[in-house]
Design a protein that fits this description.
Length: 337
Amino acid sequence: MLKILVTGGAGFIGSHFVRRLLGAGGSARITVLDALTYAGHLGNLSAAALEDGRVTFVQGSLNDRAIIEDLVAGHDTVVHFAAESHVTRSLGDAGSFVQTNVLGTYHLLDAARTHGVDKFVQVSTDEVYGPVRTGTAHEDDPLRPTVPYAASKAAAEMIAMSYFHTYQVPVCVTRSSNIYGPGQHHEKLVPLFITRLLSDRRVTLHGRGEHVRNWLHVEDNCQGIDLVMRTGLPGETYNIGGGTTKTNKDLTAMILAACGAGWDAVEYGPDRQANDIRYAVDWSKAREDLGYQPTWTLQDGLAQTVQWYREHRDRWDTPQPVTVGARAGTEGSGDAC
Ligand code: NAD
């Protein structure tokens, strides 16, 4: 019986991934390890998943070596989502990103080296490429991250690949574009704009909203990560893209329409520090080698996402503390990731 350890499974993408595994049926046992930071929420996993006999939830940190050794020893596969994931926070507090994303990943890899696993999926981001002014980034392109978040993710995946080359830990790396969908923490651009508009507040676009991102629905992203987990080749990196490419301004127009709001709800603010102008990945390797094929349109995905935030006001309609990243932007302005 396959035993899968999912780190960060109470976060946005990790929880969708767990539900995907459960929905596929089968007897695989899943352990979720999550520290339940401000970004994690057991509600993401849903009562059904938590009560499913195939799922065990463990609250703990990547940096607790004893827990990590114990958990990795009992699993065949590790899918590593847990991370500090908010770019704006990393501008004010790079240390916690190094601690979690770099050192935490090292602990997990070192335990995998000691105990042996059949597959270790390191979930990374297309932001490791840095700005892609023209064309698309290929898996073999150099990494030029510009913000501490992206640099910590690049460091983590490089350490992961070093464990493949040096110790034969069967590592695969995924680099996904910008993910959106139900359950994302409302500090990120899409849910931030949706929740502000649903509560009749204004939103702020960084710069002139000209930054370009590729928006991929979380279920499509999980399809790609699942395929990498099952059939990806150790030592290989896979871009997971194929969403819809939009400037932030065009994306805002779609969110306004989905929320029934107008441009009078939008104001422009100063651009964020080191805000990469464009990300774009070539995802033909995942398509051709793994059969990955995204299915969601951005319009349908946004409609579904808006509906989720309408129905889950309890998850976001509470006063928010001022965050460390607040000085880098303006109230109501969002990071694209
Ligand atoms: P998220 O912030 O929603 O979830 C992260 C989870 O990790 C949370 O549940 C949190 O409690 C947990 N966590 C944080 N520190 C921990 C620690 N020290 N020990 C154990 N658990 C800890 O993030 P997400 O958006 O779901 O992203 C998941 C992964 O996907 C991350 O590795 C991120 O870099 C990557 N990614 C995200 C996007 C995106 O657009 N959201 C795009 C590409 C890649």
